Amino acid sequence: MDGPSGSGKSSVSRGVARALGLRYLDTGAMYRAMTWWMLRQGVDLADPAAVAARCGEPRIESGTDPDAPTIHVDGVDVAGPIREAAVTAAVSAVAAVPEVRVRLVALQREIAGTGDIVLEGRDIGTVVCPDATVKVYLTASAEARARRRSAEVAGSTVAAQQEAMARRDALDSTRKTDPLSMAAGAVELDTTALSLDEVIAEVLRLVAERRSSEGESEANELRSGRDHVRERT
Ligand SMILES: Nc1ncnc2c1ncn2[C@@H]1O[C@H](COP(=O)(O)OP(=O)(O)O)[C@@H](O)[C@H]1O
Ligand SMILES: Nc1ccn([C@H]2C[C@H](O)[C@@H](COP(=O)(O)OP(=O)(O)O)O2)c(=O)n1
């Protein structure tokens, strides 16, 4: 599940994972955890070489229960601190450092293993899991995304949120491999006019459709395998 901030990735991914009995991984939380650690260490985030030199140090652990996802850095629960404004303002710079991405993508692939999981982020369909069974790219109008985010943050206005999100989207999409680009084979879902439940239902429908077409092609392969055996005997 990929898409920009406020498109609904976390809520939709958790809902889908819950409905299908799958695990869930918020990869954005891992970039935020790395950023939290860098800030705490006093690393100069304007210096990519300094970030690259230290990014192998923190131990980042993600719990993948969709009902209670967790995130720890060196054993410290950072679920609250990684949502603070200082981390949000700095995360794009940290996420732009190639060495950070290499390390976190490797961790994400390790957690994803052979499947049974919903991953959400910016580069899941393009980089982390290009062979995913279902790839969804969520979008929503800038206004709807800002409205959703400002409803979560006490004292914030829709206009201020919209401006902050536009700034982060721009920073997140100016890299060599644009993490906001859509993966080949991804289905784009505009959630502007849909409720959360409607979006989850639509993704579940896509999963069912993909699974049944995979089942059919496996059955065809089995049939052709049997045909092949018959031909040879
Ligand atoms: N389709 C939707 N309609 C209304 N609100 C939504 C919808 N999808 C998500 N939300 C709400 O918008 C906020 C941001 O969603 P979230 O899942 O955190 O987005 P993202 O992970 O893409 O940043 C949450 O409060 C969520 O409940
Ligand atoms: N797979 C990912 C996930 C997140 N990022 C970056 C881009 C985002 O600005 C930050 C934080 O991601 P997060 O999903 O927590 O952000 P929002 O929920 O959209 O506010 O990390 C990334 O580069 N690649």
TrEMBL record:
Keyword Cytoplasm attached: yes
Gene Ontology cellular-component terms listed: cytosol
Record key words, sorted: ATP-binding, Cytoplasm, Kinase, Nucleotide-binding, Transferase
Any one biological process term the GO annotation gives: pyrimidine nucleotide metabolic process
Signal peptide (residue range): none
Similarity annotation: Belongs to the cytidylate kinase family. Type 1 subfamily.
Protein name: Cytidylate kinase
Species of provenance: Nonomuraea phyllanthi
